[in-house]
Amino acid sequence: MTARIPGREAIRKKGMVRAAKWLALRRISQLTILLLFLLGPLAGVWIVRGSFSASMTLDVLPLTDPLTALQSLLAGHTLGATALIGALIVAVFYLLVGGRAYCSWACPVNLVTDAAAWLGRRLDLKKSIGFNNTVRYWLLGFILLLAPLTGAVVWEWVNPVTILQRGLLFGIGLGWAVVAAIFLFDLLVVRRGWCGHLCPVGALYSLPGFLSLLRVRAARREQCTDCMDCYSVCPEPQVIRPALKGEASGSPVILSGNCTNCGRCIDICPENVFQFSQRF
Ligand code: SF4
Ligand code: SF4
Question: Model pTM greater than 0.85?
Fold first, then answer.
C-alpha cells in the first residue's frame, strides 16, 4: 500500500490555490521580511535597518524582539525609550495575532524546518526520538538566568536567526553550518525538533499566544473524516485534538499558545474543517 501524501486529497477536492493559499502567503511574508533586512546592507536600500532582534523601519517604526529586550534588562543594561517602545509594539501585535505567528510568518529559520518536515514526509521518515516539547521552556528559563549571571545577552551569540542573517550578508560558513545542523536534526533526529521542542524564542512567543485574539477554529469538526492530514502537516500537532474532538473545554477553537497560526491545517483539510476566527 502506498503512503498517503498529505495535501493530495485537498488539491483534488479544493484545487491547488485553496489547498496552498496560506502556505503561499506565509512564504511571501517570510521572504519579504528577509529581503527587507538584506536590501539595506546589500543594495543600499534602507527600508529596514537592523536585525530580527532590533530594527527600525522607514526611520519611524522601532521593533524589538521581546526576548532580546528581556535579556538586556536582566543583564543590567539600560534600554533606550525606542527599544522599549519597539518591544511594546511587538508584544501588543503578537497578543492580537498569536505569539507564535512570529515563527510561521516572520522567522527565516521556519523556512529550513518546514523544508525538513516536507522532505521527511516525502521520504516517509517516521522514526523520531521521543523528546519532551517542554524542554524549550527550560531552555528559555536557563537563558534568562544566564543574563544576570553573565551580564550579557548570551542567546544572541548562538541565536540561529542572527547567525543565519549574518551568513546571508557575509557568506560566512558558520551560518550555513547552523542551518544544515537544524535541517538534519529536524529531518533525522526529532520531527519538528528545533521549532517544536527547543527554540526559546518560540517558547517566549507562545506565552502571549495563550491569550491572543486571532485563532484557528475547527468550525466544521463534524465533517472530519479522520484522514490525519492536518496532524501530519501541523508543526505542533498536539494543539489540534482538543478543538477537533471537543476535549477539555469542548470549544472548537484551538486555544493553545503553541498554535503558530500558520493556516496549514486550513489549506490541507479536504473537508474544510478549519478556518481563521477570533477566540470568542
Ligand atoms: S480535520 Fe479531519 S478531515 Fe480535516 S485534515 Fe484533519 S483529520 Fe482530515
Ligand atoms: S493548528 Fe493549524 S494553524 Fe495551528 S500550528 Fe497547526 S497547522 Fe498551523
Answer: yes
